[in-house]
């Protein structure tokens, strides 16, 4: 675990001293937008046109932010247009790593050993964290974006003209955007990032604040999903996929490792059915790897789990029936 400073790797844990024990997530640095014709997006430079075979996605199967991009890639039919490399789940002194020669954890573009080499290839003097997901542009030889919230929007709409892409699948429809944004805002701060704020807090009060906010939001989501199948507009949207990647990890990782233990997702009737419902959407199960999720959190975060022993349980059955078909 560490970061790049002026293009050099430094092994250091998150600095929570300057924030009184509170975990604060850094903003992503590569913020260009891939667009239909290469016109500039809301931020960054232009010239990132949506083309088949041009982009390569770097992910970890453990990472909830990267997971969003894998789900969108699958459900939008982008797999043959956007290739992928998967880092090894252990993120220790050198940060995210590849295992050259392995089938599962190779860097298919450069055969790099470390993810930080990709960042310095993109920007030799880079300062900042080396995170996944990262969307590499083969043409410009740089990272187009390393912000998952934006990568999923690009996947949702920029590649629609390419062969076989599910252009009719729209997870961010115009008419629902305001409500999706509103739900995302609360879910991001209190749930997606909320579990990290609880888990990475190094002061009791900061942990308790994050814990209280997290369960206040889970109670709110439980009520909302008791009467409706999806979060917004009676259809699957980006808001659901963003929540899903945290919920699917919750009982295996956040409940124990991050001390988010008022109750498990399995103890919430609506939320637990909802997770199974989303998991059972065709193609989604293939993006979920509970073994890599557990391995990553319990082995990498040694300040939280110094023994690096990975728990065997819990038993999870996301294939069980969910009974949510009758909800509107
Ligand atoms: N804003 C980023 C956050 C990505 C992120 O924090 N990824 C984690 C893995 S779950 C990471 O790579 N962390 C490495 C680090 O912070 O050094 C996004 O949503 O894309």
TrEMBL record:
Domain GST C-terminal stretches: 173-297
Molecular-function GO terms, alphabetical: glutathione transferase activity
InterPro entries cross-referenced by the UniProt entry: Glutathione-S-Trfase_C-like, Glutathione-S-Trfase_C_sf, Glutathione_S-Trfase, Glutathione_S-Trfase_N, GST_Omega-like_C, GST_Omega/GSH, Thioredoxin-like_sf
Residues reported to bind glutathione: 96, 129-132, 147-148
GO CC annotations on file: cytoplasm
Active site: 63, 196
Pfam families recorded: GST_C_2 (PF13410), GST_N_2 (PF13409)
Site (Lowers pKa of active site Cys): 254, 297
Transmembrane segments: none
PANTHER family: GLUTATHIONE S-TRANSFERASE OMEGA-LIKE 1-RELATED (PTHR32419:SF6), GLUTATHIONYL-HYDROQUINONE REDUCTASE (PTHR32419)
Protein name per the record: Glutathione-dependent reductase
């Amino acid at each position: 675990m560490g970061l790049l400073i002026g293009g050099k790797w430094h092994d250091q844990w998150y600095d929570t001293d300057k924030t009184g024990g509170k975990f604060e997530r850094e903003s992503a640095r590569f913020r260009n937008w891939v667009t239909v014709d290469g016109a500039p997006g809301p931020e960054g430079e232009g010239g990132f046109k949506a083309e088949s075979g041009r982009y390569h996605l770097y992910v970890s199967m453990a990472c909830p932010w990267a997971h969003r991009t894998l789900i969108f890639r699958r459900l939008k039919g982008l797999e043959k247009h956007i290739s992928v490399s998967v880092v090894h789940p252990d993120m220790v002194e050198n940060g995210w790593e590849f295992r050259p020669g392995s089938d599962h954890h190779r860097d298919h573009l450069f055969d790099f050993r470390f993810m930080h080499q990709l960042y310095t290839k993109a920007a030799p003097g880079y300062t900042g964290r080396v995170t996944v997901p990262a969307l590499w542009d083969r043409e410009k030889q740089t990272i187009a974006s390393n912000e998952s919230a934006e990568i999923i929007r690009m996947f949702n709409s920029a590649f629609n003209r390419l062969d076989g892409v599910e252009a009719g699948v729209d997870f961010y429809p115009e008419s629902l955007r305001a409500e999706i944004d509103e739900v995302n805002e609360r879910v991001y701060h209190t749930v997606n990032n909320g579990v990290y704020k609880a888990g990475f807090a190094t002061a009791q009060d900061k942990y308790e604040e994050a814990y209280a906010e997290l369960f206040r939001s889970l109670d709110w989501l439980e009520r909302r999903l008791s009467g409706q199948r999806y979060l917004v507009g009676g259809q699957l949207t980006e808001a659901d996929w963003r929540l899903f990647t945290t919920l699917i990890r919750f009982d295996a990782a956040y409940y124990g490792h991050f001390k988010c233990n008022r109750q498990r997702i399995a103890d919430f009737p609506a939320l637990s059915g909802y997770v199974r419902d989303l998991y059972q959407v065709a193609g989604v199960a293939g993006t979920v790897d509970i073994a890599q999720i557990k391995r990553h959190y319990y082995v990498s975060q040694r300040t939280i789990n110094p023994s690096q022993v990975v728990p065997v349980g819990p038993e999870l059955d996301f294939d069980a029936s969910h009974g949510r078909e009758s909800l509107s």
